[in-house]
C-alpha cells in the first residue's frame, strides 16, 4: 500500500537542493498522453480484464461504475467500483506482476519527454490520475537513470477483497498543498481537466491538442502554448 509524502518534508528537502537556501523552480507534468501516448490507466484496466477474464461475471458492477464515473463529482466512486470488480481476489504479488507485465506492452515516452527528463528530471514532478505504482514502473522502465524528482499519482489500497483508489489524483485533486507551495516555472498536460494544474505554471504547455481543445483551454489560460510531441 502506498502512502502520501509528508508535505513539510518535501518542501524542506526541495529547499535544501540550492546552496543559497532558495527553493528551486519546478516543472509539473501530467503523464498519460503528456509524457507518454495513450491512457495507461484505462489500458491497465483492460489488460487486467483480459488476463483475469472471470471479472466479466461482475460486468453489471463495472457498467455501473462507468455510469457513476460520468457524473463529475462522483468520479472517485465510479472508478472505485470499476477497480474493485476487476481486481477482486487479486493478491498484492499478482497486482505487481500485472503492472510490470503491462508496462512492457506500452509504447514508451514521447521523444520530447525523454529529452525533458534527461535534462530537467531533477526538478520535474510527475502528477497523474493513474496509479502511482503504474506511473513509476513505466518511468523506471523507460528512463531508469533519469527519474523525475517526485512522482505523485492515485494511491491504491485493498478494501473488501479488491483494489480501489484511496486517493484519486484527478483534476482539481492534483492541487495538493505541497504542489501549490512550489515555485512552478512550467506546467504541461494534454487534458482540460488539468487546467487548474496548468494555471500554476509561469509557462503552460498543452500537449498535442485538437483545435477545439486548444480554444477552450486558451479561454481560461490565454498564455498557454500548444506543443506537438511524437514518439
Q: State the share of residues found in helices, binned by percent.
A: 40-55%
Note the main sheet: 7 strands, mixed
Q: Look at the helices and sheets and give the structural class.
A: alpha/beta
The tally of helices reads 10
Distance between the ends: 33 Å
- Report the sheet-strand fraction: 15-25%
Described by the principal axes of the CA atoms, the overall outline is globular
Question: Residue ranges: pLDDT <50 for 5 or more in a row?
Answer: 1-17
Detailed description of the structure:
The radius of gyration is 18 Å and the shape is globular. It is of the alpha/beta class. Strand 3 and strand 4 form a beta hairpin. Helix 2 packs parallel to helix 4 and helix 3 runs antiparallel to helix 4.
Layout of SSEs?
Layout (H helix, E strand, L loop, with lengths): L6 H9 L9 E5 L10 H13 L6 H11 L5 H13 L4 H12 L7 H10 L3 E8 H11 L7 E10 L2 E6 L9 H4 L2 E7 L5 H4 L4 E5 L3 H10 L4 E3 L4
Parallel strand pairs: 1-2, 1-5, 2-3, 5-6, 6-7
Antiparallel strand pairs: 3-4
Helix pairs in contact: 2-4, 3-4, 5-7
Question: Would you kindly provide a brief summary of this structure?
Answer:
With 231 residues, the chain is an alpha/beta fold. The protein has ten helices and seven strands.
Structure keywords:
single chain; 231 residues; alpha/beta; seven-stranded mixed sheet; globular
Amino acid at each position: 500500500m502506498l502512502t502520501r509524502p509528508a508535505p513539510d518534508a518535501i518542501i524542506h528537502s526541495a529547499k535544501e537542493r540550492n546552496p543559497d537556501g532558495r527553493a528551486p523552480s519546478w516543472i509539473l507534468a501530467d503523464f498519460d498522453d503528456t509524457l507518454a501516448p495513450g491512457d495507461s490507466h484505462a489500458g491497465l484496466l483492460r489488460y487486467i480484464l483480459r488476463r483475469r477474464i472471470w471479472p466479466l461475471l461482475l460486468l453489471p458492477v463495472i457498467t455501473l461504475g462507468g455510469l457513476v464515473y460520468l457524473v463529475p463529482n462522483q468520479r472517485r466512486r465510479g472508478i472505485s467500483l470499476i477497480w474493485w470488480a476487476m481486481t477482486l481476489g487479486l493478491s498484492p504479488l499478482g497486482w505487481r506482476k500485472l503492472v510490470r507485465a503491462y508496462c512492457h506492452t506500452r509504447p514508451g515516452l514521447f521523444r520530447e519527454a525523454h529529452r525533458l527528463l534527461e535534462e530537467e528530471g531533477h526538478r520535474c514532478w510527475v502528477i497523474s490520475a493513474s496509479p502511482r505504482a503504474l506511473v513509476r514502473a513505466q518511468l523506471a522502465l523507460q528512463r531508469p537513470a533519469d527519474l523525475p524528482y517526485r512522482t505523485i499519482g492515485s494511491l491504491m489500497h485493498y478494501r473488501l477483497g479488491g483494489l480501489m483508489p484511496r486517493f484519486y489524483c484527478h483534476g482539481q485533486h492534483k492541487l495538493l498543498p505541497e504542489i501549490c507551495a512550489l515555485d512552478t516555472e512550467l506546467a504541461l498536460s494534454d487534458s482540460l481537466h488539468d487546467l487548474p494544474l496548468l494555471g500554476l505554471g509561469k509557462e503552460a504547455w498543452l500537449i498535442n491538442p485538437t483545435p477545439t481543445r486548444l480554444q477552450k483551454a486558451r479561454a481560461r489560460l490565454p498564455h498557454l502554448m500548444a506543443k506537438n510531441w511524437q514518439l
